[in-house]
Amino acid sequence: MRFSVMAEQIRRSTYLKGNRVKTFGLKENGFVRKPSSPNIVVGFTPPLPLMSKLFSVLNILMLWASAFGAGAPGSVGMLQGAAVAVEAPDERMSIAAGKIGWSLAKAKEVAAKDRDLHVSADNRLFYACKFVAPVGSLPGAASAIQTGPDTSTFTGTPPTVTATSAFQLHSRPGASKVLYLDFNGHTTPAGVWQSTPIVTPAFKLSGTTSATDQLNLNAIRDIWLHVAEDFAPWDIDVTTEQPPTTARGQRCVIGGSVMDWMGVSGVMGVAHLGSFGGAINGNDDNNFVFIDNNFPSMKPTTTNVEVTILCVAHEVGHTVGLNHWGETASGTGQAYTVGHTVTGYTGITSVCPIMGNSGLVGWPSACNLNQWSKGDYPFAYAQTTGGLQDDIAIISTFAPKVTDDHGNTLATATVVSGTSITGGGVISDSSDVDLMKITAGVGALTLTVTPHLKYRNYNGNLKVGLSLLNASGTAVAGSYSLSGMGATMTYVIPTGGTYYIKVNGLGYDPTKGTSQVPTNTGVTGTVVGTSAGFTNYGSLGRYGITGTWQQLMQAPTARITSDRTGGVRPVAVAFDGRTSTDPDGVVAGYSWNFGDPASGTANTSTLANPVHTYSSPGTFTASLTVTDNQGNPSAIATKVITVTGAALPNAVHVASMTGSWVKATNVEVAGTAVIQVVNQYGQPLQSAAVYVRVTGSVTGSAAAKTDVNGYVTIQMPKQRATNSATYTFSVTSVVYPAYTYDVLSNLPTPATITISR
Question: Are 381 and 333 in contact (CB under 8 A)?
Fold first, then answer.
């Protein structure tokens, strides 16, 4: 619920001193609202308690390293001389790989994907299985690699602060400009503000016993967090730590009462227009935010510092060249705006421009959403001489934008490896699109984008747009929530391949509800009316992103090498398939076909490096299919083998004969002969008709056709095992179309075998 400005109108005072324009808002029942909205950190110096936690984590990692090798040279736990394979030198890896028939390249590929793989002291590969997804794993495992800036300080739980760490907070260490939020108490030299030094006491909320009371420290942290959000799109380090003497930017002194030196009730903050960019130390041109403006209802409290958050961002906004935003609801321009209501959106019921906040019933509470503006709100009125001002463009003349952390196009998208993402980013303007390229398999994908954390009812600036694009850049899924600023997505990937996660800033059009289009333009144009939404112009700031998806079952690639490509028959060719690769696993199986069906079962092999003999002249195509450890087959690889030499006349002969008594039952046996038939090259012939004459205890004839390996089996009737018998099996003829039966080549010669018992 929004309320209009209270009975006392804002008294806006402007006067010149030197060449500077001073502006400050006065209010006696309705108070000047100074907005700020949170932003996100690309670099962050953690508070001491957090530092101690980090050291604890480091200690744990060191213990893990001693147990599993990382950082423990020469040992893995108590295994002296062992090492994590990925960290072992190539010389050791080559020896270890050779012991199991791997190439060095293959061993290194596997080691890079699995930190559970180790090398023993005697250079053998072994696994130390922890059964958890390792940090920094590559495709095929859950990835915990940070993608983009770590924004968790701003999008997660507020960091714990102490009397030391509360004054060491940084939003972007090393930035070209610095915004120093000075809560320590400061003496501003005599100069542009007054002829005597201005002494500002340390920040201390009413009701607290000291400046280092935990309630004050928490308030400092919360103010810093949200002011950092407002300036996240720019290369500005918002900090609570005294900057070095070389720092350029602005000191915002926060604390004390307006009555300490200014003496004008109702003033919440003062700043020179366009003063940002000078030396911070020794400067007499600081801006000030008072925590006591001599109106009790406007003071920040130990449970609510929204008014101070707003005022800091607002006053610093003046230092970067911004004037006030007002409204024309009454027909004449007013210096501030009470904001406008938003309908149909849980958590966002009111929106104000940072440079136009005015006092509301219930202060120090503020609008749910406070953003930079270009006049795209109801009844917008700019307190300028040149029409509506473009806040973002003006600020950018004082500080450069941050370097884009994720590309705006498919070609420049950040590549995310693995099957999950933990990351963050900054949306720096309404045209900024953050794209992250993933490789996902068929199945469930879940994504969560978390905007800047909330302070009470005070949101960050970024309304998240979340989309999933296919490989060609067409949106296949989108998410828009009407309850909060973040977004979640659950989507079933129908076809594995390349996809792009898209994050951008959106607005809200109450006429569309959840049907907002999650594109870069968001809600376009100026929103008009007293009940409205908001555009994506000011939807900027940091976000965090997490998500998981299924592994893409990528097929391996088969490759064939051989020691020769042919020769004079018979020629033995040594094949090798061990150069085959798999992008997301290892090659686990080989299936060869040598293109020589006349060789029978010798025509195939499952060895990694088989040898095949080609006995007849001709051109043969050897083929290889490999499978990976996920069971995915490769495309077929081929290699042509050319065998020369004069062809022999087509002929068939008996290559071998064996006889035996085969047990038929527990008390019976059967006389049996097994005969193999081959062609002129010694290759088995299938479907050759073999005629056999049997003499001895029983006389008769039999015929049968050879199987794929050129064999036939002739078996006599069963007889008691205790009975004696003699059988002689003699091949009388072998018939195969267009082939001559070469009796002289039979083995044995003649083709006869006798068995007896």
Answer: yes
Q: Are strands 248-254 and 287-289 parallel, antiparallel or unpaired?
A: parallel
Nearest partner of 207 among 304, 307, 302, judged by Cα: 302
Q: How confident is the model at residue 276 (pLDDT cuts 50, 70, 90)?
A: very high
CA angle, residues 738, 739, 741, in degrees to nearest 5: 145
CB atoms closer than 10 angstroms to residue 389: 20
CA gap 355, 373 in Å, rounded? 8
Residue bearing tokens 């919360």: 222
The HSE-up count of residue 124 (CA atoms within 13 Å, CB side) is: 5
Query: Taken in order 250, 254, 258, 259, is the CA torsion positive or negative?
Result: negative
Cβ count within 10 A of residue 707: 14
Query: Domain-by-domain residue ranges, the chain?
Result: 48-147, 414-548, 561-644, 651-756
pLDDT tens per residue, range 112-167 = 544 545 566 778 664 333 222 222 222 222 333 456 677 777 777 889 999 999 99
Where does residue 20 rank: exposed (0-12), middle (13-18), buried (19+ CB within 10 A)? middle
C-alpha dihedral sign at 605, 611, 617, 618: positive
CATH number assigned to the domain with residue range 561-644, chosen from the 4 options 2.60.40.10, 3.30.457.10, 3.40.50.720, 3.50.50.60: 2.60.40.10
Nearest to 463 by CA among 474, 472, 446, 450: 450
Over residues 689-743, the pLDDT tens digits come to: 999 999 999 999 999 999 999 999 999 999 999 999 999 999 999 999 999 999 9
Tell me how long the chain is: 757
Q: Is the dihedral of CA 74, 79, 85, 90 positive or negative?
A: positive
Tokens of 586: 């290892």
561-644: same fold as 414-548? no
Residue 60 phi, psi (nearest 5):
-65, -45
Whole-number Å distance between alpha carbons of 89 and 715 = 63
Q: Which residues contact 270 (CB under 8 A, 6 or more apart)?
A: 22, 23, 24, 193, 262, 287, 288, 315
Instruction: Round to whole Å and give the CA distance between 432 and 117.
Output: 42
Nearest C-alpha neighbor of 36 from the set 431, 391, 357: 357
In CATH, what is the architecture of 651-756? Sandwich (2.60)
C-alpha 6, offset from chain centre: 50
Alpha-carbon gap, residue 254 to 203, rounded angstroms: 6
Helix (H) or strand (E) holding 218: helix 214-230
**Concatenated DSSP letters for 495-512?**
S-EEEEEEEEE--B-TTT
Radius of gyration of the chain (CA): 41
Do 405 and 522 touch, CB atoms closer than 8 A?
Answer: no
**pTM of the predicted model as reported, rounded to 2 decimal places:** 0.61
Bond before 400 cis per omega within 30 degrees: no
- Cis peptide bond upstream of 451, omega within 30: no
- Cα distances from 308 to residues 35, 242, 348, in angstroms, run 8, 20, 20
Whole-angstrom distance, CA of residue 582 vs CA of residue 597: 30
- The CATH code for residues 414-548 is 2.60.120.380
**CA dist., res. 109 & res. 304, Å (int):** 55
Helix (H) or strand (E) holding 315: helix 306-319
Residue 496 CB-density burial (10 A; 0-12 exposed, 13-18 middle, 19+ buried): middle
* Each residue's pLDDT tens digit, 213-257: 999 999 999 999 999 999 999 999 999 999 999 999 999 999 999
**CA–CA gap between residue 311 and residue 227 (Å, rounded):** 10
Respond yes or no on whether the N-terminal peptide bond of residue 570 is cis (omega within 30° of 0). yes
